[in-house]
Amino acid sequence: MFRVLALIAGLVTLVACTNANDLAGPAADLGDFQLGHRVVVSPNLTKGPLSREADAEEWEKAMLDALGERFDRYEGEKLYHFGISVEGYVLAQPGIPVVANPKSILIFNLTIWDDAAGKKLNEEVEQITVFESMSGETLLSSGLTQTKEQQLQNLSRNAAKQIQSYMIRMKREKGWFGGAGDSVEAPETADAGDEVTESEG
Prior knowledge:
By secondary structure, the chain is α/β, with parallel strands linked by helices. It has four helices and seven strands.
């Protein structure tokens, strides 16, 4: 818990440009992927500094809605399951001096299971950090322009987008979901934490 809180404190004033507003277009290629179970839990949920309050049930519902919105479009021939643990968050609140410009943040752990093989695809949990999307409403602080529900939806949609981006990368590098790496050994040096918004758990 203290590790997550320290990470949140270090990130609270950073900005990211994740854009999850791509759902109207065709779904990115994920091979034979079809989402089966999606389990979202939050036993270690930690609220960061200068944050509105959101309980485990609110986070779990927002995440499940966003996962369904993005991944239920896939109709591949093989089932995969998500195990997600929401670890920490900041929901920027009103009343904070504009100079502080707090940003909303979500940290969660991801495990992906191959149903047919009965095992995890990622042996090590993938920890992902997500920021609110940049827009006119969040340029100063989303706490001034958005409700808590809007912030939850924004971060959860960005989380689903980041999961998709991670899966696309693993498809390319390691052949997940019938990707190009099926017949090619993944490089020993491949690092699941290369992207700015991801780090190894």
